[in-house]
Amino acid sequence: MRLAPIAAAAAAVLAAVPAIAGGLITIQRPETATKGALTVSTPAFRPGGPIPLKYSAFAQDVSPSLSWSTAPAAKSYAILVDDPDAPGPTPFSQWVAWNIPPNITMAPEGSKSGLQGTNSHNTIGYVGPHPPAGDPPHHYHFQVLAFDRMLDVPAGAVRASVLAAAKGHVVAKGEVVGTFKAP
Fold it and tell me: What structural domains and CATH numbers belong to the chain?
């Protein structure tokens, strides 16, 4: 049995499949497995559409307003914004916020709701899109998770710590995606 042709064919198939540069986004990770769904929306951009410059690190660098449907079993919510188009083994983390009270289903523009975590720029809170010049538009996943409890994670934590605490406690999740290309 000749393995070289099989290996070559497998390599060709893998080369044809687009890789996710930054790995799995938050709602695709096993730690966030759930059957519950949230509807997430924003007045700032249409789903799949371009994110206005205002919300980027090139301009005002404020988070867009987000709203989401309720999850009856929710005891808290989290917002995580991922850029999987950035190079690296994990998505670039633009925002990590958690322990948003269950009676809140809207984060206003520039929100500081809940506990704020450390993003991939090593700053606390939201950091807007800032893809490299010349890159095709990056996809920014504004994800909301509903938990069956408040998470025991200290302020300033990174995405991985929030995901570890989320395992087994996600009751619903959803997202809205926008795109951004460097001006």
Answer: 20-180 (3.90.280.10)
